[in-house]
Amino acid sequence: MKKINAITFLLIFSVFVGFAQHQNAKKWTISAGYGIGNIWTKFLKDAFDVPEYKVTALGPISIIGEYQIYKKVSVGISFTYSDLNGYFNKNGFVFSDELLIYTGLIRADYHPIINRKWDIYLGGGLGYVNSQYKSSLGTGSPNVPGKFGYSAQLGAHYYLTKNLGFYGELGYVNGSFLQLGVVLKNPNN
Predict the structure, then answer these.
(1) What digits encode the pLDDT tens for the residues 64-74?
(2) Domain count, the chain
(3) Which of 71, 169, 185, 188 could disulfide-link 155, Cβ–Cβ 3.0 to 4.6 Å?
(4) Strands (DSSP E) along the chain, which ranges?
(5) Which residue range(s) make up the domain with 151?
(6) In a domain, 1, yes or no
């Protein structure tokens, strides 16, 4: 299975920024973040229920682009990538498995508080999930996460400058319960 790398992630982020700069949208934001507490680790731990079995996770890593369509309403898209690996080695028995998850969602957020430094919002999203599982035993799993994806988030942007800041989202956010990252907003605001 092909793994995403930092260059691919930055390329996707650059395409988002380039596209947004050529739009006449009132306001747009581009965010890149990392999820804390990948919930898909439970899927792998349940697949091989042995105390010595270890699971590591990269991500979820997300890129989010949003446009303000009304004063307090925005719509957008998010793309997320997670790579989880499990490993067990005891008495000559070695087992490893991997779960890759790609998610694309359409999002909508309501922004009750917007000022110079803060943008507080809540919303949700719906979309598509592509999950790929493989194990060293050559078996796949019919129980990989489904094709339907969703999110529900309470979030905040905090701007250090007019156009650059940090963001955080709580809820069920692309495979984690907390996501933190950087946000860039339209320089024409």
Answers:
(1) 999 988 889 99
(2) 1
(3) 169
(4) 28-36, 54-70, 73-90, 93-114, 118-135, 148-159, 164-173, 176-185
(5) 6-185
(6) no
